[in-house]
Every structure is written in structure tokens, then in C-alpha cells.
Amino acid sequence: MHQLEADALTSPRAPSFIVTLYGDIVAPRGGVLWIGTLIECCAAHGLSEGLVRTAVSRLVSSGRLEGERIGRKSYYRLTDMAEEEFEAAARVLYAPPPQPTGWLVTLSEAETVSTDWLPIGPKAFIAPRRNDVLRPNAAVLSCDTVAGIGALRDFAAQAWPLAEVGAKYDAFLSVFEPILAHVWEAGAPPGPEALALRLQLVHAYRHAALVDPRLPEAALPEGWPGGRARALFVRGYLALTHAADQHIGLTFHDSRGRLATATAATELREDRLRRECLA
């Protein structure tokens, strides 16, 4: 890895990083990985074999991974529960819906609404008007902001963790803007370094994007960094993906042999990101 990258990046926590690795690499390639490959990949990020094995054990205990032993080798696959969780996260990272421009309001009971909905009364909830927000089986109204933008921003700042999410985006930008500027200038690094950098990119970005309530722009603080962070993530991911995927196809193994360099799922991800980049 280039010295600029090595100096800026720190070793991640093993369980969280393994979740990132499975989500970015393994889930779209069948969901199974040899633990030897996992240990080798994590070593490039400063994670020891002992840390990896402990983290895998915890992920098994939490119901995200399940193990299988074939001969002397151990393989770990995503559980059905984890696959659903990873698919939901992948939609946010690789194929998010357009930023909402308005709101949904429902007159419903608390137990009937998903976590996207915020209570604003005894039986009233509000959510950003996005097509991935689950509608309850109740009256749902669509509305727009027609006045009081300042008051709306004050309300949003108190109701959602926007300061915390914005700080995560700012931290992501401060680390990856100079690193990716070097990539734009020098070109993508060789496969092992490209994959290591892409994993760090996804890992850092997902910690902000998956807690972002993705509100209409009118509700966000001035200078909100989410759009800039998204653009950097998309451009960086695309710049690193060819070399990273080639390395995966050469060195990553599941119980049947090498993982595919590309699959229909990885190609769909890349196509959607390219379309977003050109939009």
C-alpha cells in the first residue's frame, strides 16, 4: 500500500471489518469463504489470526455466520438472517434510492411502523418520502415543506442524529479525499493494494451511510457533507474495482475453489454505481 494510504488508515475492529468484507466481497459471490482466505485478507489490515478467529466465533454466536468443516479446512457462510441484513445494507451502499424531496405521514399504531418512522404524536409518525420506506397498513399521507425551513432544520437536528452522522461523513472525507486524489493522479494500485483500499473505503463509508436517516435536503444542516461523501465513495469504488476484483478471483477461495472474479451481482452493483456517477 502507498505510504500515504498506510499513514492515514488504521486497523479496524475485527468483527465489524469482517462484516464489511463479507458484504462487499463474499455476499455477491455465494456467501461462503475459507477461513484461511479471511485470515490472509485481514492480516493486510493489521488483524492477527487470533483476532480473526475470535471475531468469527462471535459472528457465529450472533447468528450471522455458520461454519462447515471439509477435511482439515473450515468454511463460513452467511446465515439466512445475515443475507437479509446484508441485502438491505447493500441497497444503501450500492443502489440507494434518490434523495427524497418530501415526507410521509401515517396515522398508525407504534407497533405497525418500521424504524424509518419518527413519532410526532400519540398515533402519528413521519418519515422521508423514499421508496424504500415500508408503508404500514394504515392511512399514509404525502406532504411537502411549504414554509418554515429554519424550523424544519431545528426539528430535524433534534429528532435525528444529524450531528453524529455529519461528523462521520467529515471523518470519511478527511481520510479518503487525499488518498483518492493520489489514485486519480497515479492510477489504481496493484490488485492486493486496490482490494485493501476498497475494503477500507467501504468500511469507513458504511459506518456513516447506514446510520444516515437520508432526509430531504430542506431538513439538513447547511453544508451537509453527505452528498460529497457519496460522490467520493462512488468514484473511488469504481476506480479500484477492476484491480480489486481481479485479485479476488486469483486468491479468494470457498469450498468449491476460487471465488469468481465477477458475478451477475457484482456487475449489477458496478453498473448502478456507474449510472449514478454519470447522473
Automatic annotation (TrEMBL):
Q: Which InterPro entries match?
A: PaaX-like_N, PaaX_C, PaaX_trns_reg, WH-like_DNA-bd_sf, WH_DNA-bd_sf
Which residue numbers delimit the Transcriptional repressor PaaX-like C-terminal domain? Answer: 160-248
An example of a Pfam family matching this protein is PaaX
The UniProt record lists the Transcriptional repressor PaaX-like N-terminal domain at 13-81
Q: Which residues form a coiled coil?
A: none
Q: Which Gene3D superfamilies does this chain map to? A: 1.20.58.1460, Winged helix-like DNA-binding domain superfamily/Winged helix DNA-binding domain
Q: What's the protein called, per UniProt?
A: PaaX family transcriptional regulator C-terminal domain-containing protein
